[in-house]
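During data preparation, we tokenized the protein backbone, and the record follows.
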Amino acid sequence: MSHLDNGFRSLNLKRFPETDDVNPLQAWEAADEYLLQQLDGTEISGPVLILNDAFGALACALAEHAPYSIGDSYLSELATRENLRHNDIEESSVKFLDSTADYPQAPGVVLIKVPKTMALLEQQLRALRKVVTPDTRIIAGAKARDIHTSTLELFEKVLGPTTTTLAWKKARLINCT
């Protein structure tokens, strides 16, 4: 079990499925922290969409905003549900959608954990393009080594102007405007 402090709530998170390792890997990464840091103190209006949240760190932290957790991994959904229960957060506070479902209209914030598969990322960005507004804040995060020129070009091609942040704890963010 690992502890994540952020501007929204203090969480105890675990990976799923659990192992009996003496030193288990943590259930969140620097990109999760960096994404949450960007939203700290921000007024959030409209639906919150979270894409590819591996163990539910983002969904648990933002549960008070009734986020939609969107992904293609059933194990990620199970991990998120387990971490919600473990942190005494109502499971119903997060709505789960698979990556082929229609996304909610006019989201206020979209957080994307950049997947390793470019085809999945492209499909998700094209689905987002149909529902975002000029006021939607779109932030994607990943390990700095996993954000390539081709990743940035795909964001620009599908969603428009894109900027990146400096690396922080070996994580980097992509902002779309």
Observations:
- The first strand starts at residue 2 and ends at 5.
- The chain has one domain: 2-12+27-99+107-176.
